[in-house]
């Protein structure tokens, strides 16, 4: 259906609040820095998160595009760009005369990515090796070969959500350390990477279209005959990689935006799973940045959003019910731990601290 169809639903109509049935404005992108979080938190304390995330200005001819719509358009653009590259490479991928180059490029990238582990020595070596491999391959005068190299690198880095991070969630952190340094050197790889990520997991946008209660068929991103629990685990793995990259870059604005948009929509069966992972992966850093505003956001989750998730639990059946029940249990435990840590502190994510402190040896100048 094309990239635009993946994201267009979010602009369709306002979200309906669970309490009182009042209609609130659809969520917009919260600004990356205060007063965005402050406004969201103030509304949360008043019981209406939507009010703080509504687009500024009025609708109609000549109205400025809201930050939320700009975000949706940018996500759609990155997926479209990926699809354009895939189309342009169709012939190249089938051309037998380029088989050796394709194998060499994919092997070079895969070898270095597969060697990433949670020590600064290994992060440095893998970053250096991967950047050198890409730089060498991208010297080829054939434009299609260069495009294939960028495509293959982006694909392999995004695939690590399913290759390594799904099996070991804490692996997201060392992978993110390498990824951000590769992106600094090769921005074209980053552009394609986000296309892969949004296409594989639309909930990163976030886009919950087609995943609501009562849908027919698989949820967006779910493979044919894939059990819902396995599907949810895969989606969370993509989310962990995204969040680890954002936190490593200290780009917490998009994290806040994701929370605001998600909490301003009625929950889907997969929402609790993703919300718990977001708090687990990025809660400590978001709290350090936004402080009191984050406390109010967590209070909003506890007071207003948890009842919505619990109400949904009584309506879902089968594997979705099992997944939601387990995710709600984990979410309650996180909230209890948060509220029980003296001055209310988000627990640090597992694996965030890299084992060997040789960070001074890491740079993007390769």
UniProtKB/TrEMBL annotation:
One Pfam family matching this protein: GLE1
Low complexity bias: start-end ranges: 18-31
Statement: the UniProt record of this protein carries the keyword Iron-sulfur: no
Bilayer-spanning residue ranges: none
Compartment(s) where it occurs, according to its Swiss-Prot or TrEMBL record: Nucleus, Nuclear pore complex
Gene3D superfamilies tied to this protein: GLE1-like
InterPro entries: GLE1, GLE1-like_sf
GO biological process, any: protein transport
Gene Ontology molecular function terms on file: inositol hexakisphosphate binding; phospholipid binding; translation initiation factor binding
Residues covered by region (Disordered): 16-39, 343-366
GO cellular component: cytoplasm; nuclear pore cytoplasmic filaments
Location, primary (coarse class): nucleus
Amino acid composition bias (Acidic residues), ranges on this chain: 356-366
Keyword terms, alphabetized: mRNA transport, Nuclear pore complex, Nucleus, Protein transport, Translocation, Transport
Family according to the record: Belongs to the GLE1 family.
Name of this chain's protein: mRNA export factor GLE1
Originating species: Alexandrium catenella (Red tide dinoflagellate)
């Amino acid at each position: 259906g094309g990239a635009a169809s993946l994201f267009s639903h979010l602009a369709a109509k306002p979200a309906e609040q669970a309490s009182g049935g009042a209609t609130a404005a659809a969520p917009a992108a919260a600004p990356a820095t205060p007063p965005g979080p402050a406004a969201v938190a103030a509304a949360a304390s008043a019981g209406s998160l939507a009010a703080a995330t509504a687009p500024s200005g009025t609708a109609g001819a000549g109205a400025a595009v809201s930050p939320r719509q700009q975000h949706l358009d940018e996500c759609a653009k990155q997926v479209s760009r990926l699809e354009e590259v895939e189309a342009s490479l169709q012939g190249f991928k089938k051309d037998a005369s380029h088989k050796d180059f394709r194998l060499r490029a994919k092997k070079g990238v895969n070898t270095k990515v597969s060697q990433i582990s949670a020590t600064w020595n290994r992060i440095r070596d893998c970053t250096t090796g991967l950047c050198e491999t890409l730089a060498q391959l991208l010297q080829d005068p054939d434009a299609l070969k260069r495009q294939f190299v960028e495509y293959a690198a982006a694909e392999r880095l995004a695939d690590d959500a399913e290759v390594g991070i799904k099996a070991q969630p804490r692996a997201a952190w060392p992978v993110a350390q390498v990824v951000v340094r590769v992106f600094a050197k090769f921005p074209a790889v980053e552009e394609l990477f986000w296309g892969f990520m949004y296409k594989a997991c639309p909930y990163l946008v976030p886009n919950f279209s087609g995943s609501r209660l009562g849908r027919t068929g698989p949820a967006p991103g779910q493979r044919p005959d894939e059990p819902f629990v396995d599907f949810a685990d895969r989606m969370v793995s993509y989310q962990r990689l995204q969040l680890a990259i954002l936190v490593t870059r200290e780009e917490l604005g998009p994290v806040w935006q994701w929370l605001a948009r998600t909490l301003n929509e009625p929950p889907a069966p997969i929402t609790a799973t993703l919300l718990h992972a977001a708090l687990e992966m990025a809660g400590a850093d978001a709290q350090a940045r936004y402080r009191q505003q984050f406390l109010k956001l967590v209070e909003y989750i506890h007071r207003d959003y948890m009842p919505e998730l619990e109400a949904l639990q009584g309506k879902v059946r089968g594997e979705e019910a099992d997944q939601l029940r387990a995710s709600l249990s984990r979410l309650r435990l996180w909230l209890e731990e948060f509220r029980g840590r003296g001055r209310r502190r988000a627990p640090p994510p597992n694996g965030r601290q890299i084992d060997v402190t040789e960070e001074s040896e890491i740079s993007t100048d390769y």
